[in-house]
Write a structure and sequence with these properties.
Layout: H1 4-7, H2 13-26, E1 27-29, H3 30-36, E2 44-48, H4 52-57, E3 64-65, H5 73-76, E4 84-88, H6 96-106, E5 110-115, H7 117-123
Parallel strand pairs: 1-5, 2-3, 2-4, 4-5
């Protein structure tokens, strides 16, 4: 009879291999991003696709603020055409990273999503960095 877990038969190994390898071509995790950012020259651009205010309040160190609505061809033209972009948003409850990934793919750019977003980053025990207001800035 089995449990709820085994009620539906697992995929054949070859099918599972194809599926999980494909998943890794679409996403990466917070740990791998953290470790890869330690490289002298990371081989990707990390994009925080939340609002500039959310970015300023706390973001992954090394991330570039690029709200998804600002992802346009002219703005992305400053990057090499073969650059890999990794996008993230607030967390698993937010689909902003998915929407940003769609936009980058529409622009024919390579993209992966950092699963977990800010929530996952913090869950791993990693710290966020803030943008400090300039002296004299209101607020």
């Amino acid at each position: 009879m089995g449990t709820l877990v085994s009620h539906t038969k697992a995929a054949e190994s070859a099918v599972a291999l194809q599926h999980f390898e494909a998943m890794l071509s679409f996403e990466t995790d917070c740990w791998d991003v953290h470790e890869s950012l330690q490289a002298a020259e990371p081989d990707f651009i990390l994009l925080d696709v939340r609002s500039h205010d959310q970015y300023a309040a706390g973001h992954v160190p090394g991330a570039v603020s690029m709200p998804r609505g600002k992802i346009i061809a002219s703005r992305m033209a400053i990057y090499a055409g073969d650059m890999l972009f990794v996008v993230y948003c607030a967390g698993p409850h937010c689909n902003g990273a998915n929407k940003a990934a769609v936009r980058l793919a529409q622009l024919n750019l390579s993209v992966k999503m950092m699963i977990g977003g800010v929530t996952g980053w913090l869950d791993e025990g990693f710290l966020l960095t803030r943008v400090e207001p300039e002296p004299g800035d209101a607020g």
